[in-house]
Amino acid sequence: MTTTGGNHLPQTHGRTHGKKKSTARLSTLLERFLATKTARNTRSTYRHDLSVFLKLVERRINRAEKKSDLTSSGSVSKPSPNSSEMGILAYPTFTRITPATIATIIRSYLDDAKKTEPQRGYVLNPATINRKISALSSFFDFLVTWYGYPKNPMVHFERCRVHQKSTTDTLTAEEVSRLLHHLESMIYEQASFLTFRNFIIFRLLYRYALRRSELVSLRWEHFHPQKGWFSVIQKGNDPIIKPLRDDDWEILQRFRLIQDEHINPWVKPYRNRKHAENLFPFLFHAVRPNRRTGRFEPLTPSSVYKLVCGIAGKLFPEKHITPHSFRGSFVGAALNQKIEPGEIANGTGHKSIRMVYYYDKRDPLENNAIAKLDHSTA
Predict the structure, then answer these.
(1) Helix, strand, or coil here: 116?
(2) Do 76 and 61 contact (CB within 8 A), yes or no?
(3) Residue 125 and residue 123: Cα distance in Å, rounded?
(4) H helices of 116-172, where?
(5) Within a 10 A sphere around the Cβ of 275, how many other Cβ atoms?
(6) How far apart are CA 18 and CA 15, in angstroms?
(7) CA-CA distance, 144 to 138, in Å (whole number)?
């Protein structure tokens, strides 16, 4: 039995695959597995998903190296002093982990990746979870086929149901207008930094179809009003640019003045204005600076989630409105205005117009070709 120079897989004759006993690190076997994938995107996502999983396995090994219930042999090879580095764990040690323990680690890995709707309990990112299941299943199949791993444990894990249409509650354009008008009126009533900040948060979530992670990562330096655009860091650290509307920039400038007044007591000691601005580079930050660093930390995605749910829940108690609801509201409003799906995808940052239709929650009876098709020329 020989190995190929490219994929490092055993060469066999006939239909039966040869099974190679390996003492390689898991990171080495991972690279051999990825070499079997031809699509670049698949290699990239699988490398990320499987690297996270293997790090989790190694942490579990290192924590329980002396526990007799971890491996079927009753012992675990002593890890290297550098065991925090992914790939130190040798394949023979990996094969001695009991099926029950592997299943527990897999379940923990998938549960950590799940985003669950708090009130209804359904999975918000089923496509992501299913991709991770596919990566694990394919990797274990590879180990079973080429390296004699006992059994693919993924046969016991079911994929998440992927809904054909988004289950996220959304608001109509009229409801969004009512919400923004309510928040704007509170600015004049209370005249506080927080009321203005909340108004800007809702306005940007809707008008720019932002994810909450994108919202909290916005920095003032990302905005280029002279050029008419600003940059956004999407999921996977993928940057895109979005058009910047003049009326929104005017409101942001007003917000910045109020923000400066709010933080002035903390930055007053700094004579260097540029150094002071470095303390609050984000659009949306905490009310007070961090005691240790002196910097104003940005809002977290979870804090934006709670803020939006709390405010919107009071106005629309019959719906469960979250930050993600405004992406669906944006799509619905754009479709109602007959904007092309490709242009809507450019606005939301989706790579496919399929996701535009995923958020299309218009009435299928009112928006139906049967009632609108002109048969006068037939």
Answers:
(1) strand
(2) yes
(3) 6
(4) 126-147
(5) 10
(6) 9
(7) 10
Distance between alpha carbon 354 and the CA centroid of its chain, in Å? 18
Comparing CA positions, the residue from 207, 124, 215, 105 lying closest to residue 163 is 124
> Where in the chain does DSSP place strands (E)?
2-3, 10-11, 223-224, 229-233, 239-243
Distances from the Cα of 56 to the Cα of 44, 102, 132, 329, angstroms: 19, 11, 14, 38
The span from the CA of 355 to the CA of 327, in Å, is: 11
pTM of structure: 0.62
Does the domain made of 173-358 have the CATH classification 1.20.1250.20? no
Residue 119 DSSP SS3: coil
Contacts for 30 with CB less than 8 Å, ≥ 6 apart? 47, 50, 51, 54, 87, 139
Residue 318 · residue 339 · CB < 8 Å: no
What residue ranges do the domains of the chain occupy? 17-156, 173-358
Burial of 272 (0-12, 13-18, 19+ CB in 10 A): exposed
In tens, the pLDDT along 103-144 reads: 999 999 999 999 887 766 778 788 889 999 999 999 999 999
Residue 186 in contact with residue 199, Cβ under 8 Å?
yes
The burial class, CB within 10 Å (0-12 / 13-18 / 19+), for 72 is middle
Q: Residues 214-231: pLDDT tens digits?
A: 999 999 999 999 999 999
* Residue 29 near residue 38, CB atoms below 8 Å: no
Residue owning tokens 């046969």: 155
